[in-house]
Amino acid sequence: MCMTAAAVAHSDTAEMCPTGEQPAPQQITLLMVLRAFQKVELPKPTLSIQPPGGKTLVNFDTIFSTDADSFRRTVHLLGRRVQLGITPVSYVWAYGDGTSETTTGPGVEWSSGRPMSDYLVHAYEDADVTMQPRVSVAYSARFRVGNGRWRDVSGTVTSEGTPVDLRVVEARSVLLGTS
Length: 179
Description:
The protein is mainly beta. It contains three helices and eleven strands, in the order H-H-H-E-E-E-E-E-E-E-E-E-E-E. The radius of gyration is 26 Å and the shape is elongated.
């Protein structure tokens, strides 16, 4: 009881509790963990575009992907070690032409023999323009105090990618004669 009174009065427990009663350890709350998660420096997503070189064709399927992996961070709250298991859960692809798409996967880079249905693609309708597509990744987290059981952190934290220049051009036909 004196511990509660000491806490409310913002006093030293030794002054308020002369019997030597020790205060109960403070509990780490879900809100504390969420705030710690919000302060973790997340990796900045980088956008991979194929074809490479900052140029694509109008009305051509341009392939988008990013690298985003799960990772762990350790923070200390109330003097205790708290592990965060952080996982990407959704991706928002802003294509730079006013359209966007949300996916649960990071897309994949082109490889021979893979069907087009496996790729995240976007076709631009206007030629002779420079778009600035970007990707943002939302992360969720689980946590545990010490070696305790893992629990979910409510909410997500988003890492915004930097826009990249992508020039949309029109293909030009060239006739080659045979002699």
